[in-house]
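Thread title: Can someone regenerate the structure for this chain?

I was given the following input by a collaborator and told the matching structure tokens would be attached. They weren't. Posting the sequence so someone can regenerate them.
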Amino acid sequence: MKRLWTPAWIVRHVALVVLVTGFLALGWWQISRAASGNTLSWAYAVEWPIFAGFVVFVWWREVRHALRAPDAVPPPAGAAPTGPAAPDPGTPVVRRPVRVARVPATQVDGADDADLAAYNRYLTWLNDNPGARPGDYPG
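Best answer:
Regenerated them for you:
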């Protein structure tokens, strides 16, 4: 339990209290607005308590995670792993990168495709005439 009273955790506990209190107060405010005739406020009156519940859920999950995690003791700097031991399931596995042969893309000159060649001529004309409109194309 001492892990939950560090300065970082005290800030989290205070944030929990502030957020939940604020969200529930906003929900109560929306209920009072909805009771006075603002129908849209009924949706907000439901939404704010859901936000408060989500904050409590995230806080509880983080508390459980902090209490479950063992105190990790780093190995000495000069220590090397001995033998082919199975890796710890919690540590990521580093694998060798895969080499992929790069093959250059084939160049299409447009000789086989008349539509492509015409489109490329059109784009060249537009590039050569920056102030022109597409309707001014003579081709």
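The two ends are 80 Å apart (CA to CA).
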